[in-house]
Amino acid sequence: MATDTETEDPGVDSETDASAAETDASRAHSKAKLMKVGGLLLFVIALQIGISYWLLSPDQPEEVAEESISKESESLLVNTAEVSIDNFSVTNNIAEPGATIHVTFNLVALVEQGAAADFEAMVKENNKARVKQAVIEVVRKSSLSDLNDPQLSTMKRMMKEAINKVLKKSYVIETVISEYRTMTQ
Q1: 29, 92, 110, 164 — which has fewest CB within 10 A?
Q2: Going from the N-terminus, what domains does the chain have, and what CATH number goes with each?
């Protein structure tokens, strides 16, 4: 029986055609969805790579950075004066358990040329004992890796901060440690 909405033609199966059309449409829809998800995924990956490169890349090329470092060190030499603080001989019992490390060195501070006389008076007369105590505390609190660091960068930074803290003014630009020796007993 045929109704107004249905037509029966011989050899045409309307249910099969409808299900085939639905299958083709769903396949096309799933392919389009898969393409959209893949495109979004590629966009996110490219964005992450771009952000990572931007965050991790140096701000300046190496040649420019090296030139600026050498210019900064030249300006330090021109605008600074070396002020000898003292010779130190300190023991450290916490850096290596069960051993005592004897550390001896000369400490010099780089300060602005205009403040050199004022700094020297503050270190050698007014605050001599407190400055020595601050430097000794830094050495005694240092770890074995700090004591064995070829540049002594952590100790220098901590000494600079301790001296400036004692003097309540940022006189010291950089500290220089010379004749550095350690002996373990």
Answers
A1: 29
A2: 79-184 (3.30.479.30)
